[in-house]
Amino acid sequence: MVLPIGGNQDSSYQISNSLMFAEPDHAHLEKTYSGSSTSNRICTMSFWYKPGKNPISEQSTIFSAIKSGSSEDTIEFTSNSNYNRVLSVALNNTSDGALMSGTSSYLVHFRDNAAWYHFVLAFDTTQGTNTNRLKAYVNGRQIDIAGNISGGSPASPAYVTQNYDLGFLAETKHQIGMNAESSNSKALDGYLSEFHFIDGQQLDASYFGETNTDGIWVPKEYTGTYGNYGFFMEFKQTGTSQNSSGMGADTSGNDNHFSTSGLVALDVVTDTPTNNFCVMNPNDNYYASGIFNEGNRNLTTNASAYSFNTSTFGVSAGKWYWEAKVGNIGTGSDNWMCGVSAYQSESASSMPGATNYEVAYRNNGNYKTGDSNSTHGASFSNDAIVMFALDMDNKNIYFGHNGQWADGSGNTDEANPTSAVSLSTMLGSDRYGDTAFVIFGDGNGNSSSTPSEVKFNFGQPAYSNSSDVADANGHGKFEYQPPTGYLALCTKNLAETG
User: Fold this and answer.
1) Ramachandran quadrant class, 287 (left: phi over 0; alpha: psi -120 to 50; beta: rest)
2) Phi and psi (nearest 5°) for 23?
3) Nearest of 459, 460, 453, 498 to residue 482 by alpha carbon
4) What is the C-alpha to C-alpha distance for residues 411 and 434, in angstroms, rounded to an integer?
5) Measured between alpha carbons, how far is 2 from 138 in angstroms, rounded to an integer?
6) CA 437, CA 315: separation in Å to the nearest integer?
7) Residues 61, 124: contact at Cβ < 8 Å?
8) Distance between CA 21 and CA 413 in Å, rounded?
9) What is the mean pLDDT of residues 323-345?
10) Three-class secondary structure of residue 422 per DSSP
11) What one-character-per-residue DSSP string does 448-491 give?
């Protein structure tokens, strides 16, 4: 089942933060419980998730707890051959099989890396009707327990054994973002926000969200109780200690704080279900074969392909600002190349700017479009912060770096963007239309070359700025002040700009 996206619009209830989990860092939160839970068999978990890189290499854990010995209960994602993420529940995973044959029950598959998804998993194993022992909701809609999936086809449903004692409610180790039973395995990649765990109640999705007037599922404030083991993580703190100042702080009043591992303060971000930020799109990676990291904000090219990747957001109106820190220039005649395109890459041998439908700024200060290079600004090197001001109202783009803008004649020495590069040829074609996407790639095309790397900042950098400057609407954290009228690429700004 593929469900519509939700949680990308404004609502009366606002969420301020999320926590970004990077799979290579084995980032996770952890707590070993002591004392009695309110119930051994009844609980609810509610969380919002924005996908990270795709495809995921193995199971990717949301929440896991030791059942006993080496067995565990887990909520996790897997992937199938069509790049879909598949949400699954595995209980008593290596033992007597609380689910049929001890395997996973696959609930829903989805692949949109631009969206926030809301999941509610509500257990009551005392129920006599097998379909009531686990109720699952995605973006407010209850979904069927589809059973095991092999090759993408549903098999027989797998139901929770009646009166099964849940590992999530046991005096054992619990982890968010990692497999509790096996160290440094099945690490999560993506963003989590608004994580509720309710001990002793089986609640439906209406306790945590609602449909707004536009028909979009949005968060709402939960006002109920949590039970002994319950917690609420808002991810507002940036500390690493297991207390109220840590990233794993419990704000339910229970003080069920989790410790942190593989996480730093920069992993607390403002990309949330009520203000979704642009990132790069790992689904558009067929030809480029880029390597995505840090919540799809960092991107490394494949040195054997001269192609490009695109952003999750495309815009057709408004004025937009972003920054891109040079992680590595790379080698070759055409190196680090970043700009905009009206379409996605259609070949592994078409670099950014190879056609009229892309405009790419190069590390030598030139820009490339229609397979032709034009002098524009000064060259830049590793660690430079390159600035982009995209004016879709007038179909222009401006380039600069390290706080100065290009003058159009080979210098980068202007305080304000005044030398426009026209996008009139790139936009408005019958084939591609008027929408511009951010792109990044290189033109090396040589397996012995060093790949190029970018660290994008669409308003929430994965690197430290010396100063975090917001746009005129108060959104984003940039190194340099966005030009007057230019905004961060996020849904709150898109809603205002149209």
Assistant:
1) alpha
2) -55, -45
3) 459
4) 30
5) 10
6) 7
7) no
8) 38
9) 89
10) strand
11) TSPPPEEEEESSS-SS--SS-B--TTS---BSSPPPTT-B-SBH
* pTM score above 0.90: yes
Nearest-10 Cα torsion for 452, 458, 459, 461: -20
Residue 385 pLDDT greater than 50, yes or no: yes
Residues 113, 105 contacting (CB under 8 angstroms): no
Count the neighbouring beta carbons within 10 Å of the beta carbon of residue 85: 24
Q: How, if at all, do strands 412-414 and 421-422 pair? A: unpaired
Residue 495's SS3 state is: helix
Residue 89 has a pLDDT of 84
Are the CB atoms for 47 and 138 separated by under 8 Å? no
Q: Are 493 and 475 in contact (CB under 8 A)?
A: yes
What is the C-alpha separation between 231 and 38, in angstroms, rounded?
13
Q: What is the DSSP letter of 63?
A: E
Per-residue tokens: 237: 């703190």
Neighbours of 413 (CB within 10 A): 11
Q: How big is the chain, counted in residues?
A: 498
Distance (Å, rounded) from C-alpha 169 to C-alpha 186? 21
Q: Which two tokens stand for residue 404?
A: 């100065």
Q: pLDDT tens for residues 9-57?
A: 455 899 999 999 999 999 999 999 999 999 999 999 999 999 998 766 5
Q: Predicted confidence band at 467 (pLDDT cuts at 50, 70, 90)?
A: very high
Cα 378 to its chain centre, rounded Å, is 33
| Three-class DSSP category at 26 | coil
Q: What is the DSSP letter of 278?
A: P
* Structure-token pair, residue 318: 């408004």
Cα separation, 179 vs 188, whole angstroms: 9
| DSSP at 322 | E
Backbone angles phi, psi at 489, to 5 degrees: -85, 85
pLDDT score, position 498: 57
Residue 38's Cβ-side half-sphere holds a number of Cα atoms within 13 Å equal to: 18
Read off the tokens for 426.
């790139």
pLDDT for residue 82: 57
Residue pair 98/161 in contact by the 8 Å Cβ criterion: yes
Alpha carbon of 177 to those of 56, 62, 260: distances in Å? 13, 5, 10
Fill in the amino acid letter for 345. S
Query: Is the Cβ–Cβ distance between 257 and 242 less than 8 Å?
Result: yes
Spatial separation of the C-alpha atoms in residues 183 and 240, rounded to whole Å: 19
> Is the separation of the CB atoms in 49 and 62 below 8 Å?
yes
Tokens encoding 146: 């589809």
- Residue 396 — φ and ψ, nearest 5°? -135, 160
Bin 383: left if φ > 0, else alpha if -120 < ψ < 50, else beta. Answer: left
Q: How far is CA 114 from the centre of its chain?
A: 7
Tell me whether residue 372 is exposed, middle or buried, using C-beta atoms within 10 angstroms of its C-beta: 0 to 12, 13 to 18, 19 or more. exposed
